User: What shape does this take?
Amino acid sequence: MNATEPDLSARWKRFAEAYWGREPAAVPFAPGLGPEQVYGAVAASCAPSAEDAAGVRFATATQGRLRDAGALLPGRDDADPDAYRDRLARQLSGSGWLLSVGQPLWRDYELWAHVRELVSGLWRAVGWPALPVTAELALGERCAGPDAPAPRPGSFALTWVLAGTMTVRLWPEHTGTEYQLAASAGDLLYWPAGCRHLDHYLDRCTTLRIVVPARRAAALTHVRGLLADRMQEDPAYAGTPGVLPFPPPEGPDGEIGAAEPVAATARLFTGLAAAPGTARELRVSWAARRSAAGLEPAPPPRPAVPLTPGLRVRASAELFRIPDGPGRAVWAANGHTLAVEGAGPERVRKWLRPGVTLTIGELGRGSRMSAERLTPLLSDLHRMRAIELVGGDGAA
Assistant: This one.
């Protein structure tokens, strides 16, 4: 595989034909990223104020995972990955270590968008993920990953080595075969679902890993979380179970039923699971996921800016569209959704073609939408990064 070939889709198609769903492999496949580009997201995730610090893991080769890594995490004085590694070499007296961060990409839109485009080529060849995928960035130095491989791995993994070298031992389910793969900067490691694995990070190694659920049971966590959120918003869920008599009272037929607060919760769960609103929410969340290539969470929308008729705009992302009832639709771009209604927005979408630059005034005339309706729509699209502002001449 030629790592310099410009046609990413063709590279992924050959990769899928040769390896997808078959066996582990290590192949040249440069992702177009370097360790410096991902370090900022790693450092931001390790900052004391980071909301997603739970995804940070730090271990040393001698002590294993540390519950509180403290000053061993990147700090303000660690300007780049080399400065950070040099500091740890001094602090740890050359002992090996491993820092991994789960779901850090949302902090840097450009990084997130690069990875989204990278994996989108594969999804076009094999199908789009139905569930969120997990992205992990890791920096390691002569240190292994977890002490033992996962007992029932239900996901497939793609791991790009951005710097240094690493090795992976793999044990596919239902076989006695052991694979040992080695990779260096510019290589991609792949293994299908059902492979237990052990990583070993060497020589100033930096990696990007994408993990995709591959078994139907993985959908349970997603659906359960959605229903749990809806239940807590329902007034019927308010209050506490309180105390119950024991033994519980018998019914007229002598049978003992479930405690009523528990039974009521089960009925509420069943009702919400069958409600049309749940099906719609699952459909809309999938539209957002499709537009994000599965990479959740997506970067937040950017701040709103004033829009005037003379400003010029152009499309900057695919608007993924799903119907949402008569005259209604949901648009999705960059992991965010927008509900639209009527023919006017659809005319706007048709005018926003790749490579075409228009003033907001021209869009209004072409779509026959008033400024009062068009401006909020374009503002939402701009915040979702579905359109870009490219200047203007002040014309009305």
